[in-house]
Amino acid sequence: MSLSHAFFAIIRRDLVLALRRRSEIANPLLFFVLVITLFPLGIGAQPHLLQAIAPGIIWVSALLAAMLSLDSLFRSDFDDGSLEQILLSPQPTTVLVLGKIIAHWLVTGLPLLIVAPLLAVFLGMPSHSLGILLLTLLLGTPVLSLIGAIGVALTVGLRRGGMILSLLVLPLYVPVLIFAGNAVQMASAGLPVDAQINILTSILFMSLVLVPLPVAAALKMSIN
Amino acid sequence: MFLIPDPVGRFFHRMASPPHFYAFTERLMPWLVSLFVLLTVAGLYGGLYLAPADYQQGDSYRIIYIHVPSAWMSLFIYVVMAIAGAIGLVWRIKLAEIVAISSAPVGASFTFIALVTGSLWGKPMWGTWWVWDARLTSELILLFLYLGVIGLYGAIDDKRTASRAVAILALVGVVNIPVIHYSVEWWNTLHQGPTVTKMDKPSIHVSMLIPLLLMALSFKFYYLIALLQRTRTELLLRERNAQWVKTMILGSKQ
Q1: Poorest-confidence range of A126-130, B215-219, B245-249?
Q2: Domain hosting residue A137, numbered range
Q3: pTM of this structure
Q4: Residue A93, min C-alpha distance to chain B (Å)
Q5: Sequence-ordered strand ranges (E) for B16-77
Q6: Which domain does B201 fall in, by range?
Q7: Is position B1 within any domain?
Q8: CA-based nearest residue to A74, from A89, A63, A84, A88
């Protein structure tokens, strides 16, 4: 089996598995919507206040939704032993792991992009910044899946990995949050955001290249 | 190993063996402690007594002699931890693994001290205990990274596996620290720029600089002492079934 064939086979397998268990797609999405609904209830519904903090709210909620969905990345494969088969296969683990992460993003990250504009309108964000919000989500959420994969790979062997996972992963999410939130805020104010977008793009490509290495090493460690 | 002179190579090879390391550090410890005490007394005397008061901040700037060296140590120890972790990961040297994990609590303490002293210094200078300033924030995130390392090590039962997990996490963190630092820097800044590392002419007076460097050196020695003590304890714990530990403990009882 050629490398690209194995890569696409693993993406296809994970997508089929996710389609058979649709709650896995719906849960992070519902969480995302619910958390954003809680903010106006908690801080009051003054339009100018909501408008000012909308980029931050949307991005922090996306971060938490990504965190919540991470556990499903390797959990079921670890429990039924197919993770061991993936590690034993002749193809390089890094490529297969990258396939799994991409499938995970397609299932949990991409749907956020579809509901985000709606929620941005709820929070009264100016319509000219919606495009930038979508662009930051498009560039940023794959990074959340990628970096999160390191944390999951390190904790997948543990019975109570949930709390420790957030401690490992959230500090590493800081740069994405800063640049993405800043870009949307600047765009709302009508300022250019080329620099932030360029940096987000470079973070995305850097993590696409670098992240599979520690993930593969951590999975090998978690298995034995 | 062709670049390293033979005696140096032999020294490191011997040091990687737990019994040799244990005996050698036992002999080393009094020297380290006396150097540490000497440097601390000299640094504090110079800093708190000899150095003049600042023309703007008065005497309250003197917290710098604790604050700045701890902040330096917080980063230094993280890098040491990552390097030791990488050595442990690649060559499976037990001692390097133990050094990596023993560094984490010391580094976390220095990070905490830097945060607390920074907060105490910020109150009279900026009028507030905490500001979301770039360096304070990245120091806080560094503390979370340390706590993540300590938490992960505690969560995994098998300590050899835990050491490898910690090494991977520390290496990921070390790649991320510059990114986090610069992103936070860009995000917001109130803290003064670096004053010592400007190579051409430090913008701090030499009578204040010398005690600061002495304190920085003394903190390095403190780290070395704390690290060696932790390493020795952890070594005894992990090797408790080994023959050399048994003969050492039984031998000292007889």
Answers
A1: B245-249
A2: 3-223
A3: 0.87
A4: 16
A5: none
A6: 38-253
A7: no
A8: A84
